[in-house]
Amino acid sequence: MPVLVNESRLPALLLPGWSLDRRSQQTVIVKATCNFDLDGHLTLADQQPPLVLTDAYRDEPTASSLLQASEVGPFKQTAEFYLFGTAHPAHPDDTSTTTTVSLQGPDWQLRKTLLVVGQHRWKRGLTGLTRGPIEPLQPTALTYELTYGGMDPKTGTRLADNPAGRGYNPGGRLLNNTDAPCIEYESEFKANFSGGNRPAGYAPLPVQWAPRYRRLGEPLSEQALNQSVCPWGDAVDPRVHHCAPDDQQLPTFITGGEQLYLEGFFAGSQRSVELTLPSAFTQVRLYRQQATAETYTLACDTLLIDTDKKQLSLLYRAALPTQSVMMDANDGWLVVSPHVGPQFNESYDAN
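Above: the chain's sequence. Below: its structure in token form.
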């Protein structure tokens, strides 16, 4: 395994893992964090947060959402984005607001709008379960604890798609979970409980929640596990290491120039914040004794948005097949040059 030589100011790691087709590989991961302002200016942050090695939960892992998602998976098939932040009402007495994320590439666009409302409860009505009076909206953290899901307190069953949420009443007839969700898809908000509610959020999903564990495919048999140290089989979803919701998966990798629009996330400002994602220098080089240097190109496969901190983080990843990195100790160096990472109106020589 080569030695990682990180000459950049960005966090970088070289880790063992497996490819989608279950081949052993080494994966180099680089993380770049940028600050932004409400006028759309992006700058590389002076303090670069480290790569997140493991999931971190808000509370008990079986019944809470993620504070942080692991960033060190061995591969992603295309890019995805996820967001941590807060919804802010436009006026003090408002009972609702909307938040919107829009990301646009050369020939694709993804737009997602969530409705955020004040605290309220389900109540029984002539037409079934309906929403009670909605309180004025306070600044609201966009967590899965406030969207549809959670536990039926009488049976102890939890919604597999979101065990951390609120308002889950199986069948829609018995009123066991009275707290109504405060975060929903704008296009699906209804005054009555229909039973077709679904969790609505921007944040990454824990691996044990249904949208994530479905990507694992069929579990391997004991015999197959004994024959291979790779934990997934041939039927695994190519998005096995993607952690964002399905409607936040992009059709391509991020290459720079994409337009990002954020609305409803900033106190005192309801106008859209418009950002242009930076292009990047993405080549790393593997040097070995008595061998020609090999160049590998990093792909930007993750955009992490934190609207509270006004920061974007971009994750860049490349796989080195095992046959390229099997060598004696100290017989090779994978170099992350000072130029790797986002470029802000600067030009660097790739050599």
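The mean pLDDT is 90.
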